[in-house]
Amino acid sequence: MTRPDGRDVRDLLGMHSRAARFMAACFALTCVISVAYTSSDVRAVWPMVLAIVVCSTAAFTLVLSRGDPMPLGQSLLVSLTGAVTSGLVLSVVPVPVNDMTQLWMFGMSTAVFTFMCVRGRTALAWLGLGLMVLVTAIWSSTTGQGAMYGVSLTVINAGPVLMSTFFAYTIRPQARVIYELREQSTQRIASASASAAVLEERDAQLDRLDLLARPLLERVASGIPLTTAERQECELLEAQLRDSLRAPVLQQTDVIDAVHAARNRGVEVVLLDDHGMDDTNPAVRDRIHSSIVRELTAITRGKVTIRILPPRRTAMATMLVDAEDVRRIEFDHNGMQLVRQGDRGELGTSSMSVDPTTDSAVDPE
């Protein structure tokens, strides 16, 4: 049966590959060569050409048709390959047959039936073989050779179909098991990779924490009273560690440095991340980071609140600057910023759009 992910026994045997289509083309070429070699003493050539078309169509149908088992309608038509080609060829070959290679359609049809078993249509493959035997028996009977002569010509082809039947009832069910084992192995590998990534990230965070906090912690543990500068450094470090938890998407080196410098100048900076920028294009993310750095660098006092909004909001991020005046900067999903200005009582008395790549103002539409 076809799995939910579309994989089945065809994938296991490579029937979707170019090699499979190449083999089908070789099958058709073999039919052509067989007819060219054996058509010198037939009463008409066109039935043999039509038999080539029937065999070739059946072969490509087996390779190209989707679904497992093979669709019923297509399977019924393919099962008629042996009967139709036998009827066409036997209608024009001499009686008795001069060369057994003139009966090439038996082997070609049997090949089709074996692959029908592979495609999950074993019963129809045996039906097709039975119809081919029946048509041949009727031909041999009506030509005075006896029905058993026709049966003896075709019944030997039951061997390959029997082997493919064994394949259908033993190997085909294992295809599902094989894919389940592959999927379990893939899941285990993915789980192990995820666990390794988590451990690697944890180690990186611990190394970063050790680098940032160890000197101050050792200084605190020494028991010597902290200086004013050291107390300020502790406050800045605490704020930086808090930012790493509350606003991970803003933990770029240039943003971290700009935030640290602004806080060192006495500016109160608050960073919030509601994950609206998690899947953003890197170019847009860099554009927003650059705008944030530029704004923070220009501020000498006041308060700045930078928030990455939740997904599916009209704006992606906002930046509220409360200094000499109050400005609200909104970043759209392309990284363009809209600046709204106003006094402390009423925000939004005027607005303009700014391209952060050029710092040029653009009139809002």
| DSSP helix fraction | 55-70%
The main pleated sheet reads as: 7 strands, mixed
Q: Would you tell me the structural class of the helices and strands?
A: alpha+beta
Order of neighbouring strands in the sheet with most strands: 1-2-3-4-5-6-7
How many separate structural domains?
2
Q: Which of globular, elongated, flat, extended, rod-shaped describes the shape?
A: rod-shaped
Q: Would you list the SSEs in sequence order as H and E? A: HHHHHHHHHHHEHEEEEEE
Distance between the termini: 57 Å
How many helical stretches?
12
**Ranges with pLDDT <50 over ≥5 residues?**
1-6, 345-352, 358-365
Rg on CA atoms, Å: 39 Å
Total strands: the figure is: 7
Overall pLDDT: 84
Fraction in beta strands: 5-15%
What do you see in this structure?
By secondary structure, the protein is an alpha+beta fold. The chain has two domains: 9-184; 230-362, no CATH class. The chain contains twelve helices and seven strands. It has a seven-stranded mixed β-sheet with strand order 1-2-3-4-5-6-7, with helices on one face. The protein is rod-shaped, with a radius of gyration of 39 Å.
Secondary structure elements and pairings:
Elements: H1 9-13, H2 18-38, H3 46-64, H4 72-79, H5 81-90, H6 104-118, H7 122-142, H8 147-154, H9 158-221, H10 228-246, H11 253-264, E1 268-273, H12 282-298, E2 303-308, E3 317-322, E4 326-331, E5 337-342, E6 350-355, E7 360-362
Parallel strand pairs: 1-2
Antiparallel strand pairs: 2-3, 3-4, 4-5, 5-6, 6-7
Helix pairs in contact: 2-3, 3-5, 3-6, 4-7, 5-6, 5-7, 6-7, 6-9, 7-8, 7-9, 9-10, 11-12
